[in-house]
Amino acid sequence: MTDEKMDETKKKTKKTAECCGFPVSIFFIVVNEFCERFSYYGMRAVLVLYFRYFLLWDDDLATSIYHAFVALCYLTPIMGAIIADSWLGKFKTIIYLSVVYAVGQVVMAVSTIHDITDTDRDGTPNNFTLHIALSMLGLILIALGTGGIKPCVAAFGGDQFQEHQSRQLNTFFSVFYLCINGGSLLSTLITPVLRAQECGIHTQQQCYPLAFGVPAALMVVSLVVFISGSGMYVKTDPEGNIIWAVCKCIGFAIKNRFRHRSSAHPKREHWMDWANEKYDKLLIAQVKMVLKVLFLYIPLPMFWTLFDQKGSRWTLQATTMSGDFRAFILQPDQMQTVNPILILTMVPIMDRIIFPLIKKCGLDFSPLKRMTVGMLFAAMAFVCAALVQIEIDKTLPDFPSSSESQLKVVNMFNSSLNVTISHKDTLLIDSLESSAGYVTLDHQEITVSLNSSGITKNFSLIAGGRQTLIIPSDPSVMYLKEDIKSKPREGRNAVRFVNGWTAVLNITNLESNLEPTVISNYSLVAQGTRKFVLSNGAQSCEFSQTFGFGSSYTFLIPSTLFSTDCKSIKAVEDIQPNSVHMALQIPQYFLITTGEVLFSVTGLQFSYSQAPKNMKSVLQAGWLCTNAVGNIIVLIVAELGKLPKQWAEYLLFASLLVAVSVIFSVMAYFYTYIDPAEVEAQIRSELGFEPEEEKKKETLEMEDKDKDQQNEQEVKQTKI
Ligand SMILES: C[C@H](N)C(=O)N1CCC[C@H]1C(=O)O
């Protein structure tokens, strides 16, 4: 045996330090994963807000770029796997790509410092191009890093286990998943709080640099932890350019099959056997194993398509619900933290109680069955989401269709008015009151007549819009103002004021002073009791209003404002607060998380256990790719298909997933589980290669011989 070969075999049979039956090196790997996921999910938690409120992109662009980024993060694992399995090995790939990742996070954090381009010191950046360029560069580096290392870390963790530790290996994947979710939970709680702080050199702004800087620091910690374990790892070397060899082998099999397509040539058991002429049996067997699993993955993206809507559709659903839990207030996007919290409790329960119980009952709950059941749970979660949506829809205002217009009338005149719209609808409105709700009209050109004064005016309404007609103290100058026609974002409340006082007013929360007879633009206020101070320079008074979630109010300020100490201000409710409670989303979160434990944790283990030794990262990457495709489907669905009713869309997704899980269960039925190591050993022995066990024994014997020789020499030297 050559020295090189001996070194390699020694590496493979290296005894690792153990603690409670687990390799000690695993500790560094799970801590590394915890920090990395903290970094990834922490950054993701504030990314859309950064796009929306720092770069000032609109909602559509912000969500599209966000989903495109997530999809990229799950596509780059292919690159990481190729580098690891064919070139650098998993250990070096993790280190190099972690450096790229950490640099990306730092670039991203720098891009969020508004002071770097805020030359006029007004609090907003002056060179958006630079911020956009830096953040895109940062995101690309992050996607390369996080995706690149992801298949390697899981597979590298698996590599640390010896053959006798197969039970511990399964536990490892569960612990690994717990660490992912521990990191995700902490970071999604912490980074939004960091963002809400104010910071800056010249002007104080929302502290995005801190919200992105802490994840960057955690990525550096992750790298340091991983390097610290360096001396303890089992590092398997890549066996040449395996991916290229696989591609060539598949290409040759297809070409050869095509060349021998006539019936004169006998059929072969498997189409890959057409590569027999040129490639060795071992490689062909390995390719067959990988292809079999990859084929099985084809239906899986549908699970992720539903799963990933937690962050988009379900969060939007939460914005139309009430988050008042009495002891605490939950914001709509915080509802997502229910997922990692449930993962942290359910993985141990499943592992320790449910799975052993199922086994005790003599039921066969094989990995592919678990994954099928996982998909059905996710489908049930969407049925629940549809039911909740139906409840919410009952409480939502009737917003106008695209051909309709809605009109509300506010009377700031000093006496009641009879307002007739288009000679048809007559509304009697008291002074400092509004019409009860909105009048829906199926035409846009209207005539408004104030019957007592004989004033008549024509207006053109916005099709599909909501507007308020303000009749000021001088009714002849009545005018229209556009209203919001959807629930205010993030469960906040939209407020505006009509100034019926005789002079300019300054009102807290409003961007600028309010002229007499004018209605202000909306400003958004959070849930809770809010205080408004109104002043004209000489006098001031304050009033408070308690807000729920997702309401809209117009406050009518009378001419008697200061004499009544603000008490005469009239609140008109344009959109009622959300009344369906966010707790109703818990069942759907519970079901999707149960689905995730059954589907995702099992899929991770399955991808490792069914892969040949030299293609572990490749199959992990294939598994992660199902997630990328799922995200791309979300993107396409968001752009194209919009069903008129949200609950119908939820049901459509649920039915699609049920259909896909039936297909998957049929495919799974025909799949036979293998032990890749055994298959490889068998082929090796058929081909007359030295079996691994023999190699091990030989290495140990060589080591013993080396030691004996050393001892002999030492004895000789002492004698001399
Ligand atoms: C946070 C999720 N519960 C979760 O653990 N994941 C979602 C996609 C896969 C997995 C992850 O690796 O982040």
TrEMBL record:
It is a multi-pass membrane protein. It is found in: Apical cell membrane; Cell membrane; Membrane. Keywords: Cell membrane, Glycoprotein, Membrane, Peptide transport, Protein transport, Symport, Transmembrane, Transmembrane helix, Transport. Gene3D superfamilies: MFS general substrate transporter like domains. InterPro entries: MFS_trans_sf, POT_fam, PTR2_symporter_CS. GO terms for cellular component: apical plasma membrane. Residues 690-720 are annotated as: Disordered. One of its GO terms (molecular function) is symporter activity. Residues 693-720 have a biased composition (Basic and acidic residues). The chain crosses the membrane at residues 68-88, 94-116, 128-149, 169-195, 207-229, 289-307, 370-390, 618-638, 650-674. Electrogenic proton-coupled amino-acid transporter that transports oligopeptides of 2 to 4 amino acids with a preference for dipeptides. Transports neutral and monovalently charged peptides with a proton to peptide stoichiometry of 1:1 or 2:1. Primarily responsible for the absorption of dietary di- and tripeptides from the small intestinal lumen. Mediates transepithelial transport of muramyl and N-formylated bacterial dipeptides contributing to recognition of pathogenic bacteria by the mucosal immune system. Belongs to the major facilitator superfamily. Proton-dependent oligopeptide transporter (POT/PTR) (TC 2.A.17) family. This is Solute carrier family 15 member 1.
